[in-house]
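Form 7-S
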Amino acid sequence: MNMVDLVGFVNGSGLAAVGDGRRGRHGCCDRRRLDAGAKDLTRPATVRTRRLGVRMSMGDELIYIMVNGMPGGMATETAEAVARRHTLVPVGLTGADTGVTSTEIMGTSVELVRPDERDQALKEVKEKYPGVVAIDFTHPTAVNGNVELYAKYGIDSIIGTTGGDEQAMREAVMGSPGVYSVIAPNMGKQIVAFQAMMKSISTDFPGCLSGYTMNVVESHQSTKADTSGTAKAVINSFNDMGVDFSVDDVEKVRTEDVQLDRMGVPMKYLKGHAYHTYTLTSPDGTVTLEFKHNVRGRLVYAEGTVDAAEFLVEKRALGVDQQIFNMIDILRSGKMQ
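Output:
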């Protein structure tokens, strides 16, 4: 069970090592696996929602979703959420050093494609799966190259990987008319709502915490390479409230014994958690404000990511002018499940 303690707001990017995968006997990707998904074009154009087995119409097309970053934890959890609700493409990008060539997701064998063959893999996936959406939970060093290829082949994308050059990603998407993307450091819906509230406070009451000092501690699984993207966004809001604090001063906890003893992370969640505490103190030390958000597991992020994919499919069908969205756009749409 994914548990969320919400008193603040969180980082949603679980890290998976990435890039691309192996060559099948029929080319860059095993065409037999591609064909296995393509046959679903003959099925009724409905998709499953995750509650009570209800089915919902999504226009006249199925939603095909490619998840990149497996066998990393965040990508794997998201792939399972995709398989519960839509059609998981049996091919995904992975890292050059990944020790496996495929992974099993709820009965679907997914071929893992390494970086040197990702170009051809994406081309074939685009041809086989109409309207495919790519979800990216890869690595900061890989995500920008991936986004460029998604744009090149006209593949809409959900970018949950943090630590890349977001401006370059936006430029790649904007340079490809008709291509859409959700770029967000946090896919957890309720946590993003809190993030929006903090942003609203900073806009409505700029300087309200002038003179306050702040301490920020964040803990994630040891495989997370970068500082929490969510923490960066929250800190930016506090900066607008008048707090002088740099992202470089965030204390990143990545050692398991410290996570257990000091942070109180349950052992079963050491491989997948996001704990953040923001402590603010008044100039005279008489007032302390503390914002804390502790997320155990990755389910809240995975389900929010699939919601984002559904949102993007709808925007594409409408042919809207706006190409780049974030999770706040999705919250405002009222489409979150």
